[in-house]
Amino acid sequence: MVSRTGRHLSGLALAAAAVNFAAAGASATGITPSRQAELTRLVRQDCGSCHGMTLKGGLGRPLLPADLVGKSTEALAAVVLDGIPGTPMPPWRGLLSEDEALWIVNRLTGGLDR
Which domain, by its residues, includes 16? Predict the structure, then answer.
């Protein structure tokens, strides 16, 4: 029963992350809904391959809102864009704009209006 609940909670965490990503509009950022969908897939597939498919961690650290508390949006976006030298965290600057990195970070931290 406990392991079944654990799987259910993992599914809920993934669903909550999907809601955070899907709920954001393009008006504040200028990022079109179609690009938002692409960014959501990037997080689920590429980020999830290291940070865990439910973003609870794996090779990379967890990316759930509670794990990102106290870290500035700008600092997290810099990690997304420039990676972390000497670790498996790659830079995404060649594939993402600063606005897109900020959009991703805001979704990960639970900020839907930034």
Answer: 2-108
Task: List CB contacts of 12: < 8 A, sequence separation 6 or more.
Answer: none
Q: What is the pLDDT of residues 9-67, one digit of tens each?
A: 344 344 444 445 444 444 456 899 999 999 999 999 999 999 999 999 999 999 999 99
Whether 40 is covered by a domain: the verdict is: yes
Residue 38 placed within a domain: yes
Q: How far apart are alpha carbons 4 and 55 in whole angstroms?
A: 19
